[in-house]
Amino acid sequence: MGQAMLTGWNARNLAPSAVVAPSLDAGHHAVSRHDLFRDTPSAVAALLEAGTRPAAIVLAVKPQKADAVLPALAPLLGDGAAGPVVLSIMAGRTLAALAAQLPAGSRLVRSMPNTPAAIGRGVTVAVAGAGVDTVQRNLCDRLLRAAGAVEWVENEALLDAVTAVSGSGPAYVFLLAELLERAGTAQGLPPALARTLARATVSGAGALLDALPDDADALRRAVTSPGGTTEQALSVLMAPENWPSAVSDAVRAATERSRALAG
Ligand SMILES: NC(=O)C1=CN([C@@H]2O[C@H](COP(=O)(O)OP(=O)(O)OC[C@H]3O[C@@H](n4cnc5c(N)ncnc54)[C@H](OP(=O)(O)O)[C@@H]3O)[C@@H](O)[C@H]2O)C=CC1
Ligand SMILES: O=C(O)[C@@H]1CCC=N1
């Protein structure tokens, strides 16, 4: 996810002064323009030695890695309030949990992007912690907007459901493409044709949803001829025990997992 965001920053001349990526090749196209470090302490030491005080630090490690990374940032944050804004994209990890591992008064923003960020088509929801000023918020907004649309909310508790809907959501859509391909093959389509049709249908339907102002249910009805094929398929998918309950259960499970990753 951090890699996707870095691609967007490169395209918009928002180049970071340091990138920490333990196993990335320094010649990799997305990092070759930046100083690449294998670990956070080395990056912090190099920035301090160069007298570079970043305006923002983006945390894009797995929540499970945060305990190892956060304390190493302390020398850059100084007394917290006067330091850079820390922008986290970690699932679940709350502002309070981040604050507990950083110098008192650190300025924090928690956010949840999604992988269409890689092509500038992501959507991110962000919440600002105490003391984040307008300049810091605008900087975070610019960094996140390089990945697509940005929504700011006041209520941090919403981030768990956001994660379940838009953070994890691309995976549900990709799963649909996988299942459609498999089902087409089962109905006798050559596998390559089934793959082409499944991909084009998912991406085309998404593009149509994006291009038109209509609600999703109106677009669905427009496909559904009375007594036709779609009606038969939807009578299976829309049975309460099928997609309505499966999607609801899936989003609830992801929301609960996000809460469990709070830290
Ligand atoms: N994947 C997604 O769709 C989304 C993910 N997120 C959040 O983004 C974060 C990253 O997830 P994801 O991109 O999937 O995971 P990845 O494993 O792809 O990325 C994790 C990154 O952290 C780096 N890293 C690992 N250990 C350290 C360390 N000790 N110090 C510094 N950097 C380290 C890895 O470097 P290397 O690869 O070189 O080891 C890698 O670049 C998570 O917190 C996740 O919740 C948020 C929204 C969507
Ligand atoms: O699966 C995860 O935990 C991350 C957060 C949202 C998408 N991927």
TrEMBL record:
Reaction equations catalysed: L-proline + NAD(+) = (S)-1-pyrroline-5-carboxylate + NADH + 2 H(+); L-proline + NADP(+) = (S)-1-pyrroline-5-carboxylate + NADPH + 2 H(+)
GO molecular-function terms, A-Z: pyrroline-5-carboxylate reductase activity
EC number of the protein: 1.5.1.2
Main location (coarse class): cytoplasm
Keyword field contains NADP: yes
UniProt key word Metal-binding: no
Pyrroline-5-carboxylate reductase dimerisation domain sequence ranges: 156-261
Enzyme class: oxidoreductase
Assigned keywords, A-Z: Amino-acid biosynthesis, Cytoplasm, NADP, Oxidoreductase, Proline biosynthesis
Subcellular location: Cytoplasm
Pathway participation: Amino-acid biosynthesis; L-proline biosynthesis; L-proline from L-glutamate 5-semialdehyde: step 1/1
Protein name: Pyrroline-5-carboxylate reductase
Species this protein is from: Rhizosaccharibacter radicis
Gene this chain is encoded by: proC
